[in-house]
Design a protein that fits this description.
This protein has 18 helices and no strands. The longest helix is centred in the first third of the chain and has 41 residues, at 15-55. It has a single domain (8-416), classed as Growth Hormone, Chain: A (Up-down Bundle), CATH 1.20.1250. With 427 residues, it is mainly alpha-helical. It has helices at 5-12, 15-55, 63-86, 88-112, 115-138, 148-157, 159-168, 170-179, 187-206, 211-225, 239-269, 274-289, 292-301, 304-323, 330-357, 364-392, 395-406, 409-416. Helix 2 (15-55) runs parallel beside helix 7, helix 3 packs antiparallel against helix 4 (88-112) and helix 11 (239-269) runs antiparallel to helix 15. It starts with a helix and ends in an 11-residue tail after the last helix.
Length: 427
Protein backbone atom coordinates (compact mmCIF):
# COMPACT_ATOMS: atom_id res chain seq x y z
CA UNK A 1 0.00 0.00 0.00
CA UNK A 2 1.09 3.56 -0.61
CA UNK A 3 -0.13 7.02 0.26
CA UNK A 4 -1.26 8.96 -2.80
CA UNK A 5 1.18 11.45 -4.30
CA UNK A 6 -1.33 14.25 -3.66
CA UNK A 7 -1.51 13.42 0.06
CA UNK A 8 2.27 13.24 0.34
CA UNK A 9 2.56 16.63 -1.37
CA UNK A 10 0.03 18.18 1.03
CA UNK A 11 2.04 17.16 4.10
CA UNK A 12 5.45 17.70 2.49
CA UNK A 13 4.62 21.30 1.72
CA UNK A 14 3.27 22.26 5.13
CA UNK A 15 5.01 21.82 8.48
CA UNK A 16 1.82 22.91 10.24
CA UNK A 17 -0.19 20.15 8.53
CA UNK A 18 2.43 17.58 9.59
CA UNK A 19 2.27 18.78 13.19
CA UNK A 20 -1.52 18.71 13.13
CA UNK A 21 -1.55 15.17 11.73
CA UNK A 22 1.04 14.08 14.30
CA UNK A 23 -1.20 15.34 17.11
CA UNK A 24 -4.27 13.65 15.63
CA UNK A 25 -2.47 10.33 15.17
CA UNK A 26 -1.34 10.50 18.80
CA UNK A 27 -4.96 11.06 19.78
CA UNK A 28 -6.05 7.91 17.94
CA UNK A 29 -3.23 5.92 19.51
CA UNK A 30 -4.24 7.22 22.95
CA UNK A 31 -7.84 6.09 22.43
CA UNK A 32 -6.79 2.62 21.29
CA UNK A 33 -4.37 2.31 24.20
CA UNK A 34 -7.07 3.16 26.73
CA UNK A 35 -8.99 0.13 25.52
CA UNK A 36 -5.94 -2.06 24.99
CA UNK A 37 -4.75 -1.43 28.54
CA UNK A 38 -7.95 -2.87 29.94
CA UNK A 39 -7.54 -5.89 27.69
CA UNK A 40 -4.00 -6.78 28.75
CA UNK A 41 -4.77 -6.39 32.47
CA UNK A 42 -6.94 -9.53 32.56
CA UNK A 43 -4.16 -11.97 31.80
CA UNK A 44 -1.72 -10.25 34.15
CA UNK A 45 -4.12 -10.30 37.08
CA UNK A 46 -5.86 -13.67 36.96
CA UNK A 47 -4.11 -15.76 34.30
CA UNK A 48 -1.89 -17.56 36.81
CA UNK A 49 -4.76 -17.97 39.29
CA UNK A 50 -7.03 -19.47 36.60
CA UNK A 51 -4.34 -21.95 35.61
CA UNK A 52 -3.68 -22.82 39.25
CA UNK A 53 -7.40 -23.49 39.72
CA UNK A 54 -7.72 -25.62 36.59
CA UNK A 55 -4.42 -27.50 37.06
CA UNK A 56 -4.59 -27.89 40.82
CA UNK A 57 -1.07 -26.68 41.75
CA UNK A 58 1.45 -23.82 41.67
CA UNK A 59 4.23 -25.57 39.75
CA UNK A 60 2.61 -24.73 36.41
CA UNK A 61 1.07 -21.42 37.47
CA UNK A 62 3.64 -19.57 35.38
CA UNK A 63 2.57 -21.38 32.19
CA UNK A 64 -0.21 -18.89 31.27
CA UNK A 65 2.28 -16.03 31.35
CA UNK A 66 4.67 -18.07 29.22
CA UNK A 67 1.97 -18.95 26.69
CA UNK A 68 0.69 -15.40 26.61
CA UNK A 69 4.17 -14.06 25.91
CA UNK A 70 4.95 -16.77 23.34
CA UNK A 71 1.78 -15.80 21.53
CA UNK A 72 2.86 -12.21 21.89
CA UNK A 73 6.21 -13.07 20.28
CA UNK A 74 4.58 -14.62 17.21
CA UNK A 75 2.14 -11.74 16.94
CA UNK A 76 4.90 -9.13 17.29
CA UNK A 77 6.76 -10.66 14.36
CA UNK A 78 3.63 -10.78 12.20
CA UNK A 79 2.37 -7.33 13.17
CA UNK A 80 5.80 -5.84 12.49
CA UNK A 81 6.07 -7.44 9.07
CA UNK A 82 2.49 -6.58 8.08
CA UNK A 83 3.03 -3.00 9.26
CA UNK A 84 6.21 -2.75 7.17
CA UNK A 85 4.34 -3.81 4.03
CA UNK A 86 0.80 -2.52 4.56
CA UNK A 87 1.14 0.09 7.30
CA UNK A 88 0.35 0.42 11.00
CA UNK A 89 -3.41 0.53 10.45
CA UNK A 90 -3.65 -2.96 8.97
CA UNK A 91 -1.07 -4.52 11.29
CA UNK A 92 -2.46 -3.10 14.54
CA UNK A 93 -6.08 -3.81 13.64
CA UNK A 94 -5.33 -7.46 12.90
CA UNK A 95 -3.38 -7.85 16.15
CA UNK A 96 -6.10 -6.38 18.35
CA UNK A 97 -8.82 -8.49 16.72
CA UNK A 98 -6.76 -11.64 17.30
CA UNK A 99 -6.34 -10.64 20.95
CA UNK A 100 -10.11 -10.30 21.30
CA UNK A 101 -10.65 -13.75 19.80
CA UNK A 102 -8.11 -15.22 22.22
CA UNK A 103 -9.81 -13.60 25.23
CA UNK A 104 -13.12 -15.09 24.16
CA UNK A 105 -11.40 -18.47 23.83
CA UNK A 106 -10.16 -18.27 27.44
CA UNK A 107 -13.74 -17.77 28.62
CA UNK A 108 -14.93 -20.80 26.63
CA UNK A 109 -12.05 -22.88 28.01
CA UNK A 110 -12.98 -21.96 31.58
CA UNK A 111 -16.63 -22.83 31.00
CA UNK A 112 -15.68 -26.19 29.47
CA UNK A 113 -12.85 -26.75 31.99
CA UNK A 114 -10.67 -27.60 29.00
CA UNK A 115 -6.98 -27.00 29.72
CA UNK A 116 -5.87 -27.59 26.11
CA UNK A 117 -8.31 -24.96 24.84
CA UNK A 118 -7.12 -22.63 27.61
CA UNK A 119 -3.50 -22.94 26.48
CA UNK A 120 -4.40 -22.37 22.81
CA UNK A 121 -6.57 -19.38 23.67
CA UNK A 122 -3.82 -17.82 25.80
CA UNK A 123 -1.43 -18.07 22.86
CA UNK A 124 -3.89 -16.16 20.66
CA UNK A 125 -4.73 -13.74 23.48
CA UNK A 126 -1.05 -12.78 23.53
CA UNK A 127 -1.63 -11.03 20.20
CA UNK A 128 -3.41 -8.25 22.03
CA UNK A 129 -0.49 -7.74 24.39
CA UNK A 130 1.98 -7.53 21.50
CA UNK A 131 -0.23 -5.16 19.55
CA UNK A 132 -0.84 -2.93 22.52
CA UNK A 133 2.94 -2.66 22.94
CA UNK A 134 3.62 -2.09 19.23
CA UNK A 135 1.06 0.71 19.09
CA UNK A 136 3.64 2.88 20.86
CA UNK A 137 5.65 2.94 17.64
CA UNK A 138 2.74 4.44 15.69
CA UNK A 139 3.00 7.57 17.80
CA UNK A 140 6.67 8.03 16.84
CA UNK A 141 6.36 7.67 13.07
CA UNK A 142 5.81 11.38 12.48
CA UNK A 143 7.74 12.63 15.53
CA UNK A 144 10.98 14.56 15.20
CA UNK A 145 14.03 12.89 16.83
CA UNK A 146 14.00 15.22 19.84
CA UNK A 147 10.40 14.25 20.65
CA UNK A 148 10.47 10.51 20.04
CA UNK A 149 10.67 9.45 23.67
CA UNK A 150 7.83 11.80 24.56
CA UNK A 151 5.76 10.36 21.71
CA UNK A 152 6.33 6.89 23.15
CA UNK A 153 5.42 8.17 26.60
CA UNK A 154 2.10 9.67 25.44
CA UNK A 155 1.12 6.34 23.90
CA UNK A 156 2.12 4.47 27.04
CA UNK A 157 0.55 6.75 29.63
CA UNK A 158 -2.78 6.46 27.86
CA UNK A 159 -2.72 2.75 28.66
CA UNK A 160 -2.78 3.62 32.36
CA UNK A 161 -6.50 4.19 32.81
CA UNK A 162 -7.52 0.88 31.29
CA UNK A 163 -4.57 -1.04 32.74
CA UNK A 164 -5.18 0.22 36.28
CA UNK A 165 -8.96 -0.11 36.06
CA UNK A 166 -8.69 -3.68 34.72
CA UNK A 167 -7.27 -5.37 37.85
CA UNK A 168 -9.67 -3.47 40.08
CA UNK A 169 -12.58 -4.75 38.00
CA UNK A 170 -11.61 -8.35 38.77
CA UNK A 171 -14.20 -8.74 41.54
CA UNK A 172 -17.07 -6.99 39.68
CA UNK A 173 -16.34 -8.90 36.47
CA UNK A 174 -16.25 -12.11 38.53
CA UNK A 175 -19.76 -11.29 39.74
CA UNK A 176 -20.89 -10.65 36.16
CA UNK A 177 -19.33 -13.92 35.06
CA UNK A 178 -21.08 -15.94 37.77
CA UNK A 179 -24.40 -14.37 36.86
CA UNK A 180 -24.15 -15.79 33.33
CA UNK A 181 -22.75 -19.17 34.33
CA UNK A 182 -19.07 -18.43 33.67
CA UNK A 183 -16.34 -19.23 36.25
CA UNK A 184 -15.41 -16.20 38.35
CA UNK A 185 -11.77 -16.03 37.28
CA UNK A 186 -12.77 -15.93 33.59
CA UNK A 187 -14.75 -12.72 34.14
CA UNK A 188 -11.87 -10.31 33.37
CA UNK A 189 -11.38 -12.02 30.01
CA UNK A 190 -14.92 -11.01 29.04
CA UNK A 191 -13.79 -7.43 29.53
CA UNK A 192 -10.59 -8.12 27.58
CA UNK A 193 -12.48 -9.41 24.55
CA UNK A 194 -14.64 -6.28 24.34
CA UNK A 195 -11.65 -4.00 24.95
CA UNK A 196 -9.44 -5.54 22.27
CA UNK A 197 -12.18 -5.59 19.65
CA UNK A 198 -12.87 -1.94 20.47
CA UNK A 199 -9.20 -0.98 20.13
CA UNK A 200 -9.04 -2.68 16.74
CA UNK A 201 -12.10 -0.77 15.56
CA UNK A 202 -10.60 2.56 16.65
CA UNK A 203 -7.40 1.88 14.68
CA UNK A 204 -9.29 0.65 11.60
CA UNK A 205 -11.59 3.65 11.39
CA UNK A 206 -9.40 6.58 12.44
CA UNK A 207 -5.70 5.83 11.84
CA UNK A 208 -5.74 7.61 8.47
CA UNK A 209 -3.56 8.45 6.59
CA UNK A 210 -1.31 5.70 7.82
CA UNK A 211 1.53 7.40 9.78
CA UNK A 212 4.20 4.81 8.98
CA UNK A 213 3.55 4.79 5.24
CA UNK A 214 3.35 8.58 5.12
CA UNK A 215 6.55 9.01 7.14
CA UNK A 216 8.40 6.59 4.87
CA UNK A 217 7.28 8.43 1.73
CA UNK A 218 8.10 11.81 3.22
CA UNK A 219 11.56 10.50 4.11
CA UNK A 220 12.04 9.16 0.58
CA UNK A 221 11.03 12.54 -0.84
CA UNK A 222 13.42 14.32 1.54
CA UNK A 223 16.24 12.03 0.43
CA UNK A 224 15.58 12.97 -3.20
CA UNK A 225 15.27 16.74 -2.92
CA UNK A 226 15.73 17.75 0.73
CA UNK A 227 12.40 19.57 0.64
CA UNK A 228 10.99 18.33 3.96
CA UNK A 229 12.27 17.24 7.34
CA UNK A 230 10.40 14.47 9.14
CA UNK A 231 10.96 12.24 12.11
CA UNK A 232 12.07 9.39 9.85
CA UNK A 233 15.48 10.80 8.89
CA UNK A 234 17.87 7.96 9.79
CA UNK A 235 19.35 6.33 6.69
CA UNK A 236 21.76 3.85 8.30
CA UNK A 237 21.75 1.24 11.02
CA UNK A 238 23.64 2.15 14.19
CA UNK A 239 24.51 -1.29 15.60
CA UNK A 240 25.64 -0.30 19.08
CA UNK A 241 22.58 1.86 19.58
CA UNK A 242 20.27 -0.96 18.47
CA UNK A 243 22.11 -3.51 20.64
CA UNK A 244 21.83 -1.28 23.71
CA UNK A 245 18.12 -0.67 23.11
CA UNK A 246 17.39 -4.37 22.67
CA UNK A 247 19.38 -5.39 25.76
CA UNK A 248 17.68 -2.83 27.96
CA UNK A 249 14.19 -3.87 26.87
CA UNK A 250 14.87 -7.63 27.06
CA UNK A 251 16.46 -7.66 30.53
CA UNK A 252 13.87 -5.36 32.05
CA UNK A 253 11.12 -7.56 30.59
CA UNK A 254 12.55 -10.75 32.09
CA UNK A 255 12.91 -9.23 35.55
CA UNK A 256 9.49 -7.59 35.50
CA UNK A 257 7.50 -10.57 34.19
CA UNK A 258 9.12 -13.10 36.52
CA UNK A 259 8.35 -11.17 39.71
CA UNK A 260 4.96 -9.88 38.56
CA UNK A 261 3.71 -13.31 37.48
CA UNK A 262 4.21 -14.98 40.84
CA UNK A 263 3.13 -12.09 43.07
CA UNK A 264 -0.62 -12.97 42.81
CA UNK A 265 0.18 -16.62 43.56
CA UNK A 266 2.38 -15.62 46.52
CA UNK A 267 -0.36 -13.39 47.89
CA UNK A 268 -3.13 -15.94 47.33
CA UNK A 269 -1.16 -18.68 49.10
CA UNK A 270 -0.87 -16.45 52.18
CA UNK A 271 -4.55 -15.62 52.48
CA UNK A 272 -4.92 -12.47 50.40
CA UNK A 273 -8.14 -12.26 48.39
CA UNK A 274 -8.73 -11.11 44.82
CA UNK A 275 -9.34 -7.54 45.98
CA UNK A 276 -5.87 -7.34 47.57
CA UNK A 277 -4.30 -8.92 44.51
CA UNK A 278 -6.11 -6.45 42.27
CA UNK A 279 -4.85 -3.49 44.30
CA UNK A 280 -1.20 -4.60 44.20
CA UNK A 281 -1.23 -5.46 40.51
CA UNK A 282 -3.16 -2.27 39.73
CA UNK A 283 -0.46 -0.21 41.45
CA UNK A 284 2.20 -2.15 39.57
CA UNK A 285 0.60 -1.56 36.18
CA UNK A 286 -0.04 2.07 37.07
CA UNK A 287 3.68 2.57 37.70
CA UNK A 288 4.43 0.76 34.44
CA UNK A 289 2.61 3.47 32.50
CA UNK A 290 1.63 6.51 34.61
CA UNK A 291 5.17 8.00 34.93
CA UNK A 292 5.62 7.82 31.15
CA UNK A 293 5.24 11.53 30.40
CA UNK A 294 7.96 12.43 32.87
CA UNK A 295 10.10 9.51 31.73
CA UNK A 296 9.75 10.52 28.07
CA UNK A 297 10.81 14.07 28.88
CA UNK A 298 13.83 12.82 30.83
CA UNK A 299 14.85 10.38 28.08
CA UNK A 300 14.74 13.21 25.50
CA UNK A 301 16.50 15.75 27.74
CA UNK A 302 18.81 13.79 30.06
CA UNK A 303 19.58 11.08 27.54
CA UNK A 304 18.68 7.52 26.54
CA UNK A 305 21.64 5.84 28.23
CA UNK A 306 21.45 7.49 31.68
CA UNK A 307 17.77 6.55 31.91
CA UNK A 308 18.60 2.98 30.87
CA UNK A 309 21.04 2.76 33.79
CA UNK A 310 18.35 4.19 36.09
CA UNK A 311 16.11 1.32 34.94
CA UNK A 312 18.56 -1.34 36.09
CA UNK A 313 19.11 0.30 39.47
CA UNK A 314 15.37 0.69 40.09
CA UNK A 315 14.66 -2.94 39.25
CA UNK A 316 17.42 -4.08 41.59
CA UNK A 317 15.88 -2.11 44.46
CA UNK A 318 12.47 -3.57 43.60
CA UNK A 319 13.81 -7.11 43.81
CA UNK A 320 15.39 -6.43 47.18
CA UNK A 321 12.19 -4.94 48.58
CA UNK A 322 10.07 -7.86 47.31
CA UNK A 323 12.55 -10.43 48.61
CA UNK A 324 12.45 -9.03 52.14
CA UNK A 325 8.63 -8.71 52.31
CA UNK A 326 6.88 -10.97 54.82
CA UNK A 327 3.74 -12.89 53.87
CA UNK A 328 1.39 -10.25 55.29
CA UNK A 329 3.44 -7.15 54.29
CA UNK A 330 0.87 -5.68 51.92
CA UNK A 331 2.42 -2.20 51.90
CA UNK A 332 5.91 -3.54 51.19
CA UNK A 333 4.58 -5.60 48.29
CA UNK A 334 2.89 -2.47 46.93
CA UNK A 335 6.20 -0.59 47.06
CA UNK A 336 8.10 -3.48 45.45
CA UNK A 337 5.62 -3.84 42.61
CA UNK A 338 5.48 -0.06 42.11
CA UNK A 339 9.28 0.05 41.74
CA UNK A 340 9.09 -2.97 39.44
CA UNK A 341 6.71 -1.10 37.16
CA UNK A 342 8.79 2.09 37.28
CA UNK A 343 12.02 0.31 36.39
CA UNK A 344 10.30 -1.38 33.46
CA UNK A 345 8.93 2.01 32.35
CA UNK A 346 12.41 3.56 32.35
CA UNK A 347 13.78 0.63 30.38
CA UNK A 348 11.04 0.38 27.78
CA UNK A 349 10.97 4.08 26.89
CA UNK A 350 14.75 4.54 26.80
CA UNK A 351 15.22 1.25 24.90
CA UNK A 352 12.48 2.10 22.40
CA UNK A 353 14.02 5.51 21.70
CA UNK A 354 17.43 3.91 21.16
CA UNK A 355 15.93 1.40 18.74
CA UNK A 356 14.11 4.03 16.69
CA UNK A 357 17.18 6.27 16.60
CA UNK A 358 19.28 3.37 15.34
CA UNK A 359 17.10 2.13 12.47
CA UNK A 360 16.15 3.58 9.05
CA UNK A 361 12.50 3.79 7.87
CA UNK A 362 13.06 1.19 5.13
CA UNK A 363 13.25 -1.59 7.75
CA UNK A 364 12.09 0.13 10.93
CA UNK A 365 8.69 -1.55 11.43
CA UNK A 366 10.07 -4.99 10.60
CA UNK A 367 12.97 -4.47 12.99
CA UNK A 368 10.61 -3.22 15.69
CA UNK A 369 8.52 -6.36 15.30
CA UNK A 370 11.57 -8.60 15.49
CA UNK A 371 12.82 -6.86 18.62
CA UNK A 372 9.42 -7.18 20.25
CA UNK A 373 9.68 -10.92 19.54
CA UNK A 374 12.82 -11.01 21.66
CA UNK A 375 11.06 -9.01 24.37
CA UNK A 376 8.12 -11.41 24.33
CA UNK A 377 10.37 -14.48 24.42
CA UNK A 378 12.25 -12.95 27.31
CA UNK A 379 8.97 -12.48 29.11
CA UNK A 380 7.95 -16.04 28.28
CA UNK A 381 11.17 -17.33 29.78
CA UNK A 382 10.69 -15.27 32.91
CA UNK A 383 7.07 -16.33 33.24
CA UNK A 384 7.71 -20.02 32.67
CA UNK A 385 10.65 -20.23 35.06
CA UNK A 386 9.01 -18.12 37.75
CA UNK A 387 6.65 -20.87 38.85
CA UNK A 388 9.41 -23.47 38.77
CA UNK A 389 11.74 -21.27 40.85
CA UNK A 390 9.07 -20.53 43.46
CA UNK A 391 8.00 -24.19 43.64
CA UNK A 392 11.61 -25.31 43.99
CA UNK A 393 12.84 -22.58 46.32
CA UNK A 394 10.89 -19.45 47.24
CA UNK A 395 9.47 -16.12 46.11
CA UNK A 396 12.43 -14.51 47.88
CA UNK A 397 14.93 -16.27 45.62
CA UNK A 398 12.91 -15.31 42.55
CA UNK A 399 12.80 -11.64 43.56
CA UNK A 400 16.53 -11.48 44.29
CA UNK A 401 17.33 -13.19 41.00
CA UNK A 402 15.18 -10.76 39.01
CA UNK A 403 16.77 -7.75 40.65
CA UNK A 404 20.32 -8.98 40.11
CA UNK A 405 19.61 -9.91 36.47
CA UNK A 406 18.47 -6.39 35.64
CA UNK A 407 21.80 -4.74 36.50
CA UNK A 408 23.52 -6.69 33.72
CA UNK A 409 22.27 -4.04 31.31
CA UNK A 410 24.66 -1.47 32.81
CA UNK A 411 27.86 -2.93 31.21
CA UNK A 412 26.07 -3.04 27.84
CA UNK A 413 25.08 0.59 28.15
CA UNK A 414 28.69 1.53 28.98
CA UNK A 415 29.91 -0.48 25.97
CA UNK A 416 27.42 1.24 23.67
CA UNK A 417 28.93 4.64 24.52
CA UNK A 418 32.09 3.74 22.62
CA UNK A 419 32.07 5.37 19.17
CA UNK A 420 31.15 3.10 16.30
CA UNK A 421 30.69 4.27 12.71
CA UNK A 422 27.20 3.55 11.29
CA UNK A 423 26.92 0.97 8.54
CA UNK A 424 24.42 0.84 5.68
CA UNK A 425 21.38 -1.38 6.22
CA UNK A 426 21.79 -4.70 4.40
CA UNK A 427 19.01 -5.95 2.21
Amino acid sequence: MAISAETVEVYASSAERRRSLYRRILGVVVFSQLLGGAGLAAGVTVGALLAQQMLGGTGLAGVPSALLTLGSAAAALLVGRVSQRLGRRVGLTAGFVAGGIGAGGVVLAAVANNVILLFIALLVYGSGTATNLQARYAGTDLATPDRRARAVSVAMVSTTLGAVAGPNLVAPMGTVARSIGVPELAGPFLLAAVAYFGAGLVILVWLRPDPFLLAAQLAARAARDGSVTTGAVATTVRPRMVAAGVTVMVLTQVAMVAIMTMTPVQMSSHGHGLTDVGIVIGIHIGFMYLPSLITGYLVDRVGRLPMAIASGVTLLISGLVAATASADAMVQLMVALALLGLGWNFGLISGTALLIDGTPPETRARTQGSVDVLIALAGATGGALSGVVVAGSSFTVLSLGGGLLSILLIPVVIWSRRPSPPRPESA
